[in-house]
Each structure stands twice: as structure tokens, then as C-alpha cells.
Design goal:
Blueprint: H1 4-14, E1 24-28, E2 31-37, H2 47-56, H3 60-65, E3 67-70, H4 74-85, E4 90-95, H5 100-108, E5 112-116, H6 120-134, E6 137-138, H7 145-161, E7 167-171, H8 176-188, E8 193-199, H9 204-211, H10 219-222, H11 237-246, E9 249-253, H12 255-268, H13 275-286, E10 297-301, H14 308-320
Parallel strand pairs: 2-10, 3-4, 3-6, 4-5, 7-8, 7-10, 8-9
Antiparallel strand pairs: 1-2
Helix pairs in contact: 1-7, 2-4, 2-7, 4-5, 7-8, 8-11, 12-13, 12-14
Length: 321
């Protein structure tokens, strides 16, 4: 389990590297929500925080040999950006269903890309194999304490900006972000509630939390959601320990609610969010009976790396309906 001290150390490492995103207070028809726009980070998502913090813990010898990661997109960019900033080479294993935009952005940051099938287990296995063969230092996407500590810096910022926050809503892929934010928040102030939010098409964290044990969903199930950043088949072991200790519950949202939240972020908050980044707002707007909605609610906008054609399609369908 990570400590508050580890998160504070990560905050110092990230100073001047990751943007300290503000809380944006927005009045929606359903109520007032405080948005944390991580889509404003240099790589368009929160993933820079954990990736940089992890690589910063490697020895100079490890960094010289290079780093490797596996990701469907945003962690890939986080590792590539952090590696370039620290002068080391990055190799990224990505699935063949990665968005063209995320592939291009990762490559533009100087990373070498290795393509595998759509299964999250497959890309993890390939990255571990290459790490062993080539001597690369592995930068896991979520199941790692340094990654969790980096993502936890968002929790410190939330309470610094809104000390009386009552609920924090966080999307869940592998569980790195919710592990860190929940640990930070609960170690500073136990009273705010922290909820994980997923698509109902692959709510493996919700199912695991309710079953009291980690469950693995088949790739055919988790890859159905438009929220490509949440398509992992299970939460990490370390992440699940943090979830069981610090998280208050989970909310599953529909694909239509995710799409509508992308639209609402664009039109009401003037923020461009990818579907994964809109998932917490979907809970805040459409599932207000599942959390203490009468208080001050924070929704993390985790990223904004959405393909232009997808954004155009989502916004156009909103106008038609």
C-alpha cells in the first residue's frame, strides 16, 4: 500500500513537468460539478503523472538501457513523453485496435511501437518478454506503487483546491488512477466518498468489488465499449488492494450516457474529452441517486485524445436527437 509520503514525493518530482490542473466549476442542468481537466496535460491525459514518477525512480543504468510499456494509447504517450524528457529510449507494445491518433502521437514522441492483438493480457506478456530479452526497464500502466503514487497527486490537488469536496468520481481501467486518488484523499480526509465509474459493457472493477475478489473479463466483452482507455480485462492486484481499502463503491454507465457526456463537456464546459474521460461525468449527471449528489462533486476528465472523426460523429448525433 502506498503512503501519503510517497504521493507527496511524487508531487515534488512532477513539479514543472505535469500541469497542476485547476478545478473547473460548471453548472449543468442536473447540478453543479467540479471538473478536473486532465485533458489539458501536455500529452492530453493524466498518464504523464504516473509514467514520469516511475521512470524517475529508475537508476541511470536502467534508463540508459531503455524503458518499455504496454498500452492502448494514453499510457503509451505518457511513457514516451517522460522517457524523452529524461533522455532515454522507449518501446511501447500497443494493441492492433489502438486509435490511429494515439498511435501517431506516441510515434511522434520518439517511441518505437510493437503491435499485438487486442487482448490486454497479450500486450502485457509481449512487453514482459521484450523487457527480459533486451534488458528494458518495465513501466507498468497501473499495477505498480510508483505509478499509483504519481496518479495520486491528483487527489492532493483536489483537496488543496476544494477542501470540502464530498464525492470524487474516477473512471477505472486497470485501477491506477482510482488507487492513487482514493489513497491520497482518504489519508488526508476520510470523509469524502470516492467512486469508480465504468462502462456497463465491461464493468470488471465493479464486479470485482462486489464479489470481494479480482475478476477477469474476456477481451471480447471489455473491447465493446467506446471508452477505449477502460478496456483492460481486470484491475491490477496492487490496485485491487487499494480499491478494497479506500474506495466506497462503483457506478456503471451506458454507452449513450458516455456519448452524451462527451457532448456536454464540449458544449457546457468547453472541454474536449475522449469517451473514457467523460465516463465520470456520466455518473455525475445520470446516476445521481448512486452517490451523495447534494454535496460538492468532483469528476475527473482523464483525457482528451479523441479522434476528430469520432468527436464529429458524437457531436453531430447530439444535434440530431
Amino acid at each position: 500500500m502506498i503512503t501519503l509520503e510517497k504521493i507527496q514525493q511524487a508531487q515534488e518530482r512532477l513539479r514543472g513537468v505535469a500541469l497542476r490542473t485547476p478545478l473547473q466549476r460548471v453548472s449543468f442542468g442536473e447540478g453543479e460539478i467540479y471538473l478536473k481537466p486532465e485533458n489539458l496535460q501536455p500529452i492530453g491525459s493524466f498518464k504523464l503523472r504516473g509514467a514520469y514518477n516511475k521512470i524517475a525512480t529508475f537508476s541511470s543504468g536502467q534508463r540508459e538501457r531503455g524503458v518499455i510499456a504496454y498500452s492502448s494509447g494514453n499510457h503509451a504517450q505518457g511513457v514516451a513523453y517522460a522517457a524523452r524528457a529524461m533522455g532515454c529510449h522507449a518501446t511501447i507494445v500497443m494493441p492492433d485496435n489502438s486509435s490511429k491518433l494515439k498511435l501517431e502521437k506516441t510515434r511522434a514522441l520518439g517511441a518505437q511501437i510493437v503491435i499485438v492483438g487486442p487482448s490486454s493480457d497479450e500486450r502485457k506478456a509481449r512487453a514482459e518478454q521484450l523487457a527480459q530479452e533486451k534488458g528494458f526497464a518495465l513501466v507498468p500502466p497501473y499495477d505498480d506503487e510508483a505509478i499509483i503514487a504519481g496518479q495520486g497527486t491528483m487527489g492532493l490537488e483536489i483537496l488543496a483546491d476544494l477542501s470540502d469536496a464530498t464525492t470524487v468520481l474516477v473512471c477505472v481501467g486497470g485501477g491506477g488512477m482510482i488507487s492513487g486518488i482514493a489513497a491520497a484523499v482518504k489519508n488526508m480526509r476520510p470523509s469524502p466518498k470516492v467512486y469508480g465509474v465504468e462502462s456497463e459493457l465491461g464493468a470488471k472493477a465493479k464486479a470485482s468489488f462486489e464479489a470481494g475478489q479480482r475478476l477477469t473479463f474476456p477481451a471480447e466483452e471489455t473491447t465493446r465499449t467506446i471508452a477505449d482507455g477502460l478496456r483492460t480485462q481486470s484491475v491490477g492486484e496492487c490496485n485491487f488492494e487499494h480499491i478494497q481499502r479506500y474506495v466506497d463503491g462503483f457506478i456503471a454507465v451506458s454507452e449513450d450516457e458516455i456519448r452524451e457526456s462527451v457532448r456536454r463537456l464540449a458544449f457546457d464546459a468547453h472541454l474536449i474529452a475522449e469517451p473514457s474521460g467523460a465516463v465520470p461525468l456520466a455518473a455525475a449527471l445520470f446516476h445521481r441517486n448512486e452517490f451523495p449528489a447534494s454535496g460538492k462533486t468532483v469528476a475527473i476528465v482523464s483525457g482528451g485524445n479523441i479522434a476528430p472523426e469520432m468527436l464529429k460523429e458524437i457531436l453531430a448525433k447530439g444535434k440530431q436527437s
